[in-house]
């Protein structure tokens, strides 16, 4: 078998659990997540790193999984949308997206939620400008962004009041 055709074993922590998979080194992490690992919550929008639909967290950094070679997952801590809820309990950000209409067709929603969570990890009480910047790498064609913005604001308020 030609060297370039060989798959390699990649080990990582995926959504809080040790995981390993075999993939071609330059396979897109997005494809491995969706096709091999059946984590279909991560969506493909543009395939060029422009829309944010495929956003995941990798070692605490928000990345476009369509641009990440599978080999880069070696040793990484990865969180996809499937790793956000705790059991059957949705995260406050997920609940806010549902309650405030931030989720429409669903293509951008997983990436938006991960972008919001990443923002809140860095800025627990973000101002409006920080929220806009935190979501700026994610495109949506359904909501006009206000419902998404309001969903993040509601999640922040809920965290502040403990409600």
Describe this structure in words.
Helices cover 33% and strands 15% of the residues. The mean pLDDT is 93. With 163 residues, it is of the alpha+beta class. The chain contains 5 helices and 5 strands, in the order ββαβββαααα. The chain is globular, with a radius of gyration of 16 Å.
The total tally of domains equals 2
In the CATH classification, which architecture of the largest domain applies? Roll
Distance between the termini: 58 Å
Query: What string, H for helix and E for strand, traces the elements in order?
Result: EEHEEEHHHH
Shape: globular
How many helix segments? 5
CATH fold name of the largest domain = Ubiquitin-like (UB roll)
Q: Which structural class best describes the helix and strand composition?
A: alpha+beta
Segments where pLDDT lies below 50 for 5+ residues?
Answer: none
Tell me the helix content. 25-40%
